[in-house]
Every structure is written in C-alpha cells, then in structure tokens.
Amino acid sequence: MPDISRVGVLGCGLMGSGIAQATATAGFPTVVRDVEAGLLARGEGTIVKSLDKLVEKSKLAPAARAGALERLTFTTDLARLHDCDLIVEAVTEDLAIKTELWRALDPRCPPETIFASNTSSLSIGVMAAATARPDRFIGLHFFNPVPLMPLVEVVRAVGTSPAVVERTMAFARRLGKEPITARDRSGFVVNRLLVPYLLDAMRALEQGVGSAADIDRGMQLGCGHPMGPLALADFVGLDTLARIAAIMYDEYGEPRFAPPPLLRRMVAAGLHGRKSGRGFYDYASDPPHPIDLGL
Ligand code: 3HC
Question: Which fold has domain 191-285?
C-alpha cells in the first residue's frame, strides 16, 4: 500500500474546511471538492481567517500559513480527486447523499485509496457497503474547531482491515492529532456522551430550570467547561445537532437521544446557531446575548 501523500476532502463547510486546513498545514497537498464555487469560496475564506488568527497569535509561522494555502486546491469536479491516497468526506449528515457520493467516487479512484467518513452518527459499515472497498473504508471523526481540537475518532467498521486502521491512526498523528478508536455505533464515543448532555440542557431551558445564560455559566464555572451546553450547541450548529440526534434516536430508541421540541422548532425557524447568526444566542452583538424564545 502506498504511503498517504495526497488528500482529498469532500465538502467545504464547517468541518470540511477545518479538515482541509489541518491536512494542508501538516504538509499534505489537499484537493477540496464541493458542489458550488460559492461554497468553496466561503470555505476558503474560513481557512484564511483561521490561519490568520493562528499567525496573529504566533501559533503558526507566516511561511507555514503560505505553505498551507499553496497546498490547497479547490474544485467542483469529483474527478480531480482521482490521485488522492486518502479521501475524507465531510458533507451533510445524510446517508443517501453520502452513499451516493461514495458510489460515484469509487470507480474514479484506484483500489488502494482509503475512503474515510467524518460522519458523527451514521453507520460507516453501511457507507462502506456501497463501495467495492469495504476493507479500505473507515470513520475519521474530527471535532470543531478542527484546527484547535486535538482529538480524532478512528472508527473501524465490520469489514475495515486492521492495516487500514493502523495507517489511518498514523495519518491522524501526522496531523498532530491524538486518535482514539471506536466501534461503528452511532455517535461513537464522544457524541454518544455529548449529544444527550446538550439535549438535556435544552430540556432544562424548556422546563424553566434556569435561563440560557445561567445554564451555560453554571456548566462553565461549575464544571470548568470552555463553553456552556447551549453555546456549544449553537457552535456545533442546531440543524446538524437535530439531524445527529434523530439518527441516534433511530439507532438506540432511547428518549435521551430524541431531539427536544424546542430544538425542532428553532431549526424550522431558521435558528441554526452561530453559523446563521442566531440560535440560543444572537451573534450580531459582542458578547452574544440570549434570544427571547418565548418560553
Ligand atoms: N482557528 C484558529 N484559532 C481559533 C479558532 C479557529 N477556528 N477559533 C478560536 N481560535 C483561537 C482564538 O484566536 C483564541 O486564541 P488565544 O487563546 O491565543 O487568544 C483561542 O482560540 C480561544 O478562542 P476565543 O477566545 O475566541 O474563545 P474560547 O476561549 O471560548 O475558545 C474554543 C474557543 C477553542 C472553541 C473553546 O471555547 C472550546 O474549546 N470550546 C469547546 C469546543 C468543543 O467542545 N468542540 C467539540 C464540539 S462536538 C463536535 O465537533 C463533534 C461533532 O460531530 C458534533
């Protein structure tokens, strides 16, 4: 098997842009593919902003910033990923969309290319079964903001070869990340614990246990969390969280994973969290202030 030297990233949203930034900064020529030029431009803008912030804080040398940007190629053409040794998919959390993408990419790539999904909750094994390479299909789950969060979950599906697990773990370390391994069960390790906690904070808000600001301050000051659960939910994206929760509820059938009515209504109202400017907080002001949700 060839060493991983060229990386492809599918999707240039919050996670895809962060993953591309991490791989390019670590020295890998990286081809980023999304469906529209506008989405690619937005993702590139996010990367530039993040790299600038790291340079400003002296966490990255200006030459390393320039090198990372040179190693990035943005395209809408799936065929441009034909010579990548590893492809990380970070598109919408929708099994049909992901599966269709993998099916389209499979015949375009050499058989040794590793396919990795950054899904947070969908089955790696089901996606792998849509390709002719289930032994070279793996989960590689990053955390937001990718440039700062050290963890990566490496998920072994039923058919993933142990050698591919080892190579993917080694790749994660080359990105400067700390990998842990997890089984192919919805949510893996972190989201299985985190998602019910975030949903419970919403139920606490709905039930009037405390205000959004007090719930968040409580967990920050009482437990030393960098962000309270409602601010973190906004940060992850409420639409994404609702989708993850629904998938986990479907897999486990346990009420703790069920998206609370408040979350569903906020998503329907277009309150998608920080990325849309409004969620539990309004991000137009600095600091953001809690939104009156009519509770
Ligand atoms: N790129 C580069 N630098 C960044 C950045 C980015 N995207 N975002 C923040 N920073 C830098 C800031 O410049 C700042 O630098 P400094 O310490 O040198 O001043 C530093 O990070 C801290 O940023 P802020 O002062 O703006 O804010 P915080 O102190 O709150 O830190 C945070 C931001 C690192 C995001 C911190 O709040 C945090 O760790 N929050 C929890 C994040 C978390 O739990 N993520 C996991 C989500 S779950 C997930 O992703 C899984 C998915 O499947 C749902």
Answer: N-(1-d-carboxylethyl)-l-norvaline Dehydrogenase; domain 2 (1.10.1040)
